[in-house]
Amino acid sequence: MQREYIGNAPSPEQVGQLDGLTVIEFGTPWCGYCQVVQPALERVLAQRHTVRHLKIEDGRGRRLGRFFRVKLWPTLIVLQEGEEVARLVRPTSDAAIEATLAQACTT
User: Fold this and answer.
1) Phi, psi of 94 (to 5 degrees)
2) How far apart are CA 33 and CA 30, in angstroms?
3) With contact defined as beta carbons under 8 Å apart, do 64 and 15 qualify?
4) Quick check: helix, strand or coil at residue 58?
5) Which residue has better confidence, 3 or 98?
6) pLDDT in tens, 30-77
7) At what angle do helices 94-106 and 32-46 cross, to 10 degrees?
8) DSSP class of 17
């Protein structure tokens, strides 16, 4: 699991070339909702060693967040082979994150 937000995000084209299962987490270090979800996200991702996690700092003028039409933080975008297969906005529990990843694995 990536612990720090990346300010210099990959381009949409680079994200589209990612292989395997990827979770992109959009948020900011100062967002209270983002801080609250971190323990649950860490627990879930600790059990899924093959899932790539990208923690992207979002905000005004951030191209990747606009590409995915992120409106609220945190937003988790799940990609399979670079294509969006699931999305979870403001997760509140391990179960919600697990269900979203399970959904992504069946698509």
Assistant:
1) -55, -40
2) 9
3) yes
4) coil
5) 98
6) 999 999 999 999 999 999 999 999 999 999 989 999 999 999 999 999
7) 60
8) T
Q: Judging by beta carbons within 10 Å of its beta carbon (0-12, 13-18, 19+), is residue 99 exposed, middle or buried?
A: middle
How deeply is 13 buried, as exposed, middle or buried, from its count of CB atoms within 10 A (0-12, 13-18, 19+)?
Answer: exposed
Neighbours of 84 (CB within 10 A): 16
Please state, rounded to an integer, the average pLDDT across all residues of the chain.
95
10 vs 7: CA distance, rounded Å:
10
Q: Which residues contact 49 (CB under 8 A, 6 or more apart)?
A: none
Question: Given CA atoms 21, 99, 10, 32 in this order, what sign does their dihedral have?
Answer: negative
Structure-token pair, residue 46:
């600790």
